[in-house]
Design the sequence.
């Protein structure tokens, strides 16, 4: 009896771990240099971008996803709203002036990413 409980507890823990391992860590942070390539395909890849405060950084964004939901990108903190044509690189240059985490999202606020200024 106790064995069965133990097995199911371990089993549930293992399932959680596997889920976390494969799906939970996708939000990888990438440190941008002078520029960074962002692919829009079912979301933003990478979705977390670290950039340096006061330094001009160019986001090179290419939309590969035909979903019209993703055809606009909005960076509220930087007052930027851009149309992203399919399979064409769009450059957005930003020079952050303060530290913090600033989100960006699609035109309908369904897909999200963030810029971490450090
Ligand atoms: Cu959307």
Sequence:
């Amino acid at each position: 009896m106790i064995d069965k409980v133990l097995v199911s507890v371990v089993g549930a823990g293992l399932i959680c771990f596997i889920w976390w391992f494969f799906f939970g860590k996708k939000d990888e942070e990438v440190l941008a240099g002078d520029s960074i390539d962002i692919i829009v395909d079912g979301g933003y890849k990478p979705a977390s971008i670290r950039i340096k405060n006061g330094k001009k950084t160019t986001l090179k964004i290419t939309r590969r996803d035909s979903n019209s939901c993703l055809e606009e990108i909005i960076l509220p903190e930087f007052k930027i709203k851009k149309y992203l044509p399919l399979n064409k690189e769009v450059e957005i240059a930003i020079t952050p002036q303060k530290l913090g985490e600033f989100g960006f999202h699609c035109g309908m606020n369904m897909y999200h990413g963030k810029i971490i200024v450090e």
Q: What stands out?
A: The chain is about 20% helix and 40% strand. The first strand starts at residue 29 and ends at 31. Residues 49 and 115 are 5 Å apart (CA to CA). Residues 69-70, 106-108, 110-111 surround copper (II) ion (CB under 6 Å).
